[in-house]
Amino acid sequence: MKTLLMVGGTMGVGKTTACRALQRRLDGCVFLDGDWCWDIHPFTVNEENRAMALDNIVSLLGRFLQNPQLPTVIFCWVLHRDDIYAQILTRLFPGGPPPEIRVVRVSLLCSEGTLRERLGREIAAGLRTPDVLERSAARLPLYAGLDTEKLMTDGLTPEETAARLEALLERAERT
To answer: Which tens digit of pLDDT belongs to each residue from 119-129?
Structure first.
């Protein structure tokens, strides 16, 4: 059985760091960050670039899922709307996921205070621009309505978040 773990969350919640930590915990695991699929300078958000990113994501995920050496595929991206999940999953599995592939959807969440603290450190380090604070905070409430497992990351290290993600995967294997 293969597992496709789809991890969503607003910018700065810790998706990439936690997924990278989870990847180190699992054998035969590949990790794709959706942001890598449109790492353009200058970064431009428009329909053409979104479509390209989606094409790249679906192509890479499909290849990873076909590889018998990779029982676990981790994918993270902002994923703040159910239709984004649907676009990816419908293109990967037009008739729905086959029985040999388990899809686990998780939203990483934190309080607005924690989010601002984390993003503030990244802004101070020159890793992000200040405009990310308001854009990211505005997305936080969108995750409550998604059809995903919710994982609060306040007070957790990336390794602790990875351990909780691993526990979710283990629970999904048993069901």
So the answer is: 999 999 999 99
Quote the tokens at residue 4: 């496709």
Which tokens in the block code for residue 130?
Answer: 């200040």
Element holding 19 (H helix, E strand): helix 15-25
pTM: 0.95
H or E, element range at 7: strand 2-8
Are 4 and 88 in contact by the 8 Å Cβ rule? The answer is no
**What number is the average pLDDT over the span 146-172?**
97
- Cα dihedral: 8, 11, 16, 22 (round 10): -50
Query: Exposure pattern of 82-118 as b/e (b: 16+ CB <10 Å)?
Result: eebbeebbeebeeeeeeeeebbbbbbbbbeeebbbeb
Length of the chain: 175
